[in-house]
Specification:
There is one protein chain. The protein is mainly alpha-helical and 284 residues long. It has a single domain (2-200, 253-280), classed as 3-Layer(aba) Sandwich (Rossmann fold). It contains 15 helices and 7 strands. It has helices at residues 10-18, 37-40, 44-48, 74-80, 93-106, 118-122, 132-138, 146-154, 167-172, 174-184, 206-213, 218-226, 229-238, 240-247, 259-280, and strands spanning 2-4, 23-30, 59-63, 86-90, 162-166, 201-203, 249-251. The strands form 3 sheets. A 3-stranded parallel β-sheet has the order 1-4-5, with helices on both faces. Strands 2-3 form a two-stranded parallel sheet. It has a two-stranded antiparallel ribbon with strand order 6-7. It is globular and about 55 Å long. It starts with a strand and ends with a helix.
Protein backbone atom coordinates (compact mmCIF):
# COMPACT_ATOMS: atom_id res chain seq x y z
CA UNK A 1 0.00 0.00 0.00
CA UNK A 2 1.37 3.39 -1.03
CA UNK A 3 0.10 5.71 1.72
CA UNK A 4 1.64 9.03 0.59
CA UNK A 5 2.79 11.58 0.86
CA UNK A 6 0.46 13.32 -1.59
CA UNK A 7 2.15 15.73 -4.01
CA UNK A 8 5.39 13.77 -3.66
CA UNK A 9 5.44 11.75 -6.88
CA UNK A 10 3.05 8.94 -5.97
CA UNK A 11 1.51 9.08 -9.46
CA UNK A 12 4.95 8.47 -10.96
CA UNK A 13 5.55 5.60 -8.54
CA UNK A 14 2.16 4.09 -9.41
CA UNK A 15 2.83 4.44 -13.15
CA UNK A 16 6.13 2.60 -12.76
CA UNK A 17 4.87 -0.15 -10.45
CA UNK A 18 1.76 -1.00 -12.46
CA UNK A 19 3.92 -1.76 -15.52
CA UNK A 20 6.03 -4.35 -13.68
CA UNK A 21 5.25 -7.97 -14.55
CA UNK A 22 5.15 -9.24 -10.94
CA UNK A 23 2.96 -6.44 -9.59
CA UNK A 24 -0.79 -6.28 -10.02
CA UNK A 25 -2.13 -2.85 -9.15
CA UNK A 26 -5.75 -2.02 -8.39
CA UNK A 27 -7.43 -1.03 -11.65
CA UNK A 28 -7.50 2.58 -10.44
CA UNK A 29 -4.56 4.21 -8.72
CA UNK A 30 -6.28 5.41 -5.55
CA UNK A 31 -8.70 3.21 -3.64
CA UNK A 32 -9.64 5.15 -0.47
CA UNK A 33 -11.22 2.15 1.20
CA UNK A 34 -9.62 2.32 4.64
CA UNK A 35 -9.61 6.11 4.85
CA UNK A 36 -13.21 6.84 3.84
CA UNK A 37 -15.66 5.32 6.30
CA UNK A 38 -18.47 5.33 3.72
CA UNK A 39 -16.35 3.05 1.50
CA UNK A 40 -15.05 0.92 4.37
CA UNK A 41 -18.62 0.21 5.50
CA UNK A 42 -19.27 -1.50 2.15
CA UNK A 43 -17.05 -4.38 3.22
CA UNK A 44 -14.12 -6.32 1.85
CA UNK A 45 -15.95 -7.62 -1.22
CA UNK A 46 -16.28 -4.02 -2.41
CA UNK A 47 -12.53 -3.54 -1.90
CA UNK A 48 -11.60 -6.81 -3.58
CA UNK A 49 -13.50 -5.84 -6.73
CA UNK A 50 -10.64 -3.45 -7.52
CA UNK A 51 -8.25 -6.44 -7.75
CA UNK A 52 -10.39 -8.98 -9.59
CA UNK A 53 -7.84 -9.53 -12.34
CA UNK A 54 -4.86 -10.04 -9.98
CA UNK A 55 -5.18 -13.79 -9.41
CA UNK A 56 -2.04 -15.11 -7.70
CA UNK A 57 0.26 -12.21 -8.63
CA UNK A 58 3.35 -12.12 -6.38
CA UNK A 59 2.53 -8.58 -5.30
CA UNK A 60 -0.92 -6.99 -5.18
CA UNK A 61 -0.75 -3.23 -4.65
CA UNK A 62 -2.85 -0.13 -4.28
CA UNK A 63 -2.56 3.48 -3.18
CA UNK A 64 -4.37 5.83 -0.82
CA UNK A 65 -2.54 9.05 -0.08
CA UNK A 66 -5.08 10.11 2.56
CA UNK A 67 -3.71 7.37 4.77
CA UNK A 68 -0.41 8.92 5.87
CA UNK A 69 -2.23 11.54 7.94
CA UNK A 70 -5.25 9.37 8.76
CA UNK A 71 -4.19 7.92 12.09
CA UNK A 72 -7.61 6.38 12.75
CA UNK A 73 -7.39 4.23 9.62
CA UNK A 74 -4.17 2.49 10.67
CA UNK A 75 -6.01 -0.01 12.87
CA UNK A 76 -8.39 -0.79 9.98
CA UNK A 77 -5.46 -1.53 7.66
CA UNK A 78 -3.78 -3.70 10.30
CA UNK A 79 -6.96 -5.65 11.05
CA UNK A 80 -7.37 -6.34 7.33
CA UNK A 81 -3.79 -7.53 6.86
CA UNK A 82 -1.15 -7.27 9.64
CA UNK A 83 1.50 -8.30 7.09
CA UNK A 84 0.71 -5.42 4.73
CA UNK A 85 3.82 -3.72 3.38
CA UNK A 86 3.63 0.06 3.56
CA UNK A 87 5.39 2.39 1.09
CA UNK A 88 5.89 6.08 1.87
CA UNK A 89 7.32 8.53 -0.64
CA UNK A 90 8.77 11.64 1.00
CA UNK A 91 9.49 14.95 -0.68
CA UNK A 92 11.36 17.89 0.83
CA UNK A 93 8.55 19.29 3.03
CA UNK A 94 8.56 22.95 2.00
CA UNK A 95 8.24 22.00 -1.69
CA UNK A 96 5.54 19.45 -0.93
CA UNK A 97 3.59 21.91 1.20
CA UNK A 98 3.71 24.64 -1.44
CA UNK A 99 2.69 22.15 -4.14
CA UNK A 100 -0.24 20.99 -2.00
CA UNK A 101 -1.28 24.60 -1.39
CA UNK A 102 -1.28 25.45 -5.11
CA UNK A 103 -3.03 22.21 -6.04
CA UNK A 104 -5.87 22.92 -3.63
CA UNK A 105 -6.32 26.45 -4.97
CA UNK A 106 -6.46 25.23 -8.59
CA UNK A 107 -8.83 22.41 -7.62
CA UNK A 108 -11.17 24.84 -5.89
CA UNK A 109 -10.71 23.40 -2.38
CA UNK A 110 -10.07 26.90 -1.02
CA UNK A 111 -9.32 30.38 -2.28
CA UNK A 112 -5.79 31.74 -2.44
CA UNK A 113 -4.67 33.32 0.81
CA UNK A 114 -3.01 36.73 0.85
CA UNK A 115 0.31 34.86 0.98
CA UNK A 116 1.44 31.25 1.21
CA UNK A 117 2.40 31.43 4.89
CA UNK A 118 -1.18 32.40 5.77
CA UNK A 119 -1.94 28.74 5.13
CA UNK A 120 -0.17 27.89 8.38
CA UNK A 121 -2.49 30.13 10.36
CA UNK A 122 -5.56 28.91 8.46
CA UNK A 123 -4.90 25.29 9.39
CA UNK A 124 -4.12 25.75 13.09
CA UNK A 125 -7.01 23.49 14.09
CA UNK A 126 -6.74 21.10 11.14
CA UNK A 127 -5.77 18.15 13.33
CA UNK A 128 -9.30 18.36 14.85
CA UNK A 129 -10.96 18.15 11.41
CA UNK A 130 -12.86 14.82 11.37
CA UNK A 131 -13.24 14.69 7.58
CA UNK A 132 -10.01 13.22 6.17
CA UNK A 133 -10.73 14.72 2.74
CA UNK A 134 -10.90 18.24 4.16
CA UNK A 135 -7.89 17.54 6.38
CA UNK A 136 -5.97 16.55 3.25
CA UNK A 137 -7.21 19.42 1.10
CA UNK A 138 -6.67 22.14 3.70
CA UNK A 139 -3.80 20.79 5.83
CA UNK A 140 -0.80 21.57 3.68
CA UNK A 141 1.75 22.07 6.46
CA UNK A 142 0.15 19.35 8.55
CA UNK A 143 0.51 16.83 5.73
CA UNK A 144 4.28 17.44 5.62
CA UNK A 145 4.93 16.62 9.28
CA UNK A 146 6.31 13.25 8.26
CA UNK A 147 7.78 12.16 11.58
CA UNK A 148 4.56 12.93 13.43
CA UNK A 149 2.51 10.80 11.03
CA UNK A 150 5.01 7.96 10.67
CA UNK A 151 5.28 7.46 14.41
CA UNK A 152 1.60 6.49 14.45
CA UNK A 153 2.22 3.89 11.73
CA UNK A 154 5.39 2.60 13.39
CA UNK A 155 3.49 1.94 16.63
CA UNK A 156 1.25 -0.53 14.79
CA UNK A 157 3.28 -1.99 11.91
CA UNK A 158 6.78 -3.46 12.38
CA UNK A 159 9.49 -1.16 11.06
CA UNK A 160 10.60 -3.76 8.49
CA UNK A 161 7.16 -3.52 6.87
CA UNK A 162 7.51 0.23 6.22
CA UNK A 163 9.65 1.48 3.35
CA UNK A 164 10.57 5.16 3.21
CA UNK A 165 11.63 6.39 -0.22
CA UNK A 166 12.77 9.84 -1.28
CA UNK A 167 11.22 11.72 -4.18
CA UNK A 168 14.67 13.17 -4.92
CA UNK A 169 16.09 9.65 -5.37
CA UNK A 170 13.32 8.77 -7.82
CA UNK A 171 14.44 11.73 -9.92
CA UNK A 172 18.20 11.82 -9.38
CA UNK A 173 19.14 8.23 -8.44
CA UNK A 174 16.56 6.00 -10.15
CA UNK A 175 18.63 2.79 -9.98
CA UNK A 176 19.08 3.18 -6.22
CA UNK A 177 15.38 3.94 -5.91
CA UNK A 178 14.36 0.86 -7.92
CA UNK A 179 16.79 -1.32 -5.98
CA UNK A 180 15.31 -0.34 -2.63
CA UNK A 181 11.79 -0.91 -3.88
CA UNK A 182 12.33 -4.36 -5.43
CA UNK A 183 14.35 -5.54 -2.39
CA UNK A 184 11.50 -4.47 -0.08
CA UNK A 185 8.96 -6.37 -2.20
CA UNK A 186 11.25 -9.42 -2.61
CA UNK A 187 11.11 -9.18 -6.39
CA UNK A 188 13.66 -9.56 -9.17
CA UNK A 189 15.23 -6.30 -10.43
CA UNK A 190 12.72 -4.06 -12.16
CA UNK A 191 12.86 -3.23 -15.83
CA UNK A 192 12.23 0.10 -17.51
CA UNK A 193 12.79 3.68 -16.49
CA UNK A 194 11.01 5.68 -13.83
CA UNK A 195 9.46 8.29 -16.15
CA UNK A 196 8.25 11.37 -14.34
CA UNK A 197 4.52 12.03 -14.73
CA UNK A 198 2.02 14.50 -13.28
CA UNK A 199 4.26 17.55 -13.64
CA UNK A 200 3.10 20.87 -12.19
CA UNK A 201 -0.05 21.85 -14.02
CA UNK A 202 -3.13 24.03 -13.73
CA UNK A 203 -6.68 23.29 -14.93
CA UNK A 204 -7.98 24.77 -18.15
CA UNK A 205 -11.50 24.73 -16.72
CA UNK A 206 -11.79 25.10 -12.92
CA UNK A 207 -15.38 23.86 -12.75
CA UNK A 208 -14.40 20.66 -14.55
CA UNK A 209 -11.35 20.27 -12.32
CA UNK A 210 -13.54 20.51 -9.23
CA UNK A 211 -15.68 17.71 -10.62
CA UNK A 212 -12.61 15.48 -10.91
CA UNK A 213 -11.05 16.34 -7.55
CA UNK A 214 -13.91 17.15 -5.17
CA UNK A 215 -15.49 13.93 -3.88
CA UNK A 216 -18.18 15.97 -2.16
CA UNK A 217 -19.40 17.78 -5.29
CA UNK A 218 -23.10 17.52 -6.14
CA UNK A 219 -22.49 15.78 -9.48
CA UNK A 220 -20.22 13.15 -7.92
CA UNK A 221 -22.73 12.49 -5.16
CA UNK A 222 -25.44 12.03 -7.80
CA UNK A 223 -23.26 9.61 -9.77
CA UNK A 224 -22.56 7.61 -6.59
CA UNK A 225 -26.20 7.47 -5.55
CA UNK A 226 -28.02 7.11 -8.88
CA UNK A 227 -25.95 4.92 -11.18
CA UNK A 228 -25.56 1.17 -10.53
CA UNK A 229 -22.25 -0.06 -9.19
CA UNK A 230 -21.38 -2.07 -12.30
CA UNK A 231 -21.80 1.00 -14.49
CA UNK A 232 -19.57 3.08 -12.19
CA UNK A 233 -16.91 0.36 -12.25
CA UNK A 234 -17.10 0.18 -16.04
CA UNK A 235 -16.49 3.94 -16.21
CA UNK A 236 -13.50 3.65 -13.85
CA UNK A 237 -12.04 0.65 -15.69
CA UNK A 238 -12.32 2.48 -19.01
CA UNK A 239 -9.82 5.08 -17.83
CA UNK A 240 -12.06 7.79 -19.28
CA UNK A 241 -12.13 10.01 -16.15
CA UNK A 242 -8.32 10.01 -15.99
CA UNK A 243 -8.00 10.85 -19.67
CA UNK A 244 -10.50 13.70 -19.38
CA UNK A 245 -8.75 15.00 -16.29
CA UNK A 246 -5.42 15.00 -18.13
CA UNK A 247 -6.95 16.82 -21.11
CA UNK A 248 -8.20 19.53 -18.79
CA UNK A 249 -4.70 20.37 -17.50
CA UNK A 250 -1.85 22.42 -18.90
CA UNK A 251 1.66 22.56 -17.52
CA UNK A 252 2.43 25.74 -15.68
CA UNK A 253 4.97 26.30 -12.93
CA UNK A 254 3.87 28.09 -9.78
CA UNK A 255 5.33 31.42 -8.73
CA UNK A 256 8.51 30.76 -6.75
CA UNK A 257 8.46 31.27 -3.00
CA UNK A 258 10.29 34.27 -1.60
CA UNK A 259 13.44 33.61 0.40
CA UNK A 260 11.67 34.78 3.55
CA UNK A 261 8.77 32.37 3.00
CA UNK A 262 11.17 29.49 2.36
CA UNK A 263 13.16 30.19 5.50
CA UNK A 264 10.06 30.58 7.67
CA UNK A 265 8.65 27.31 6.36
CA UNK A 266 12.00 25.56 6.85
CA UNK A 267 12.05 26.68 10.47
CA UNK A 268 8.59 25.22 10.97
CA UNK A 269 9.70 21.78 9.75
CA UNK A 270 13.18 21.78 11.34
CA UNK A 271 12.31 19.80 14.49
CA UNK A 272 10.18 17.26 12.63
CA UNK A 273 13.01 16.63 10.14
CA UNK A 274 15.54 16.19 12.93
CA UNK A 275 13.32 13.57 14.54
CA UNK A 276 12.71 11.92 11.15
CA UNK A 277 16.45 11.45 10.69
CA UNK A 278 16.96 10.29 14.29
CA UNK A 279 14.12 7.77 14.43
CA UNK A 280 13.82 6.63 10.80
CA UNK A 281 17.31 7.29 9.40
CA UNK A 282 16.16 9.34 6.45
CA UNK A 283 17.39 12.85 5.76
CA UNK A 284 15.54 15.33 3.53
Amino acid sequence: MIIGAGRSGTTTLWSFMKDQEDICFSFIKEVPFFSLKAHFSKGENYYHDFFRSCGDAPVIASSDTYLLMDHEAISRVYAYNPEMKIIVLLREPVSRTYSSYNYSIHAGHHKAYSCFMDSLEAEREIVQEPDIIRRNNLGHFYGSLYHEHLMHWAKVFPREQILLLKTSDMKDHPEKFKGELCAFLNLAPFVGDVGWVNAAAVPKNKALEKLFTDRGSLIRRLVRNVFPRKFKQWIMRSGLPGKMHEKNRRQEASEPLSLQEKNTAKDYFRKDLELLEKDFGIKL
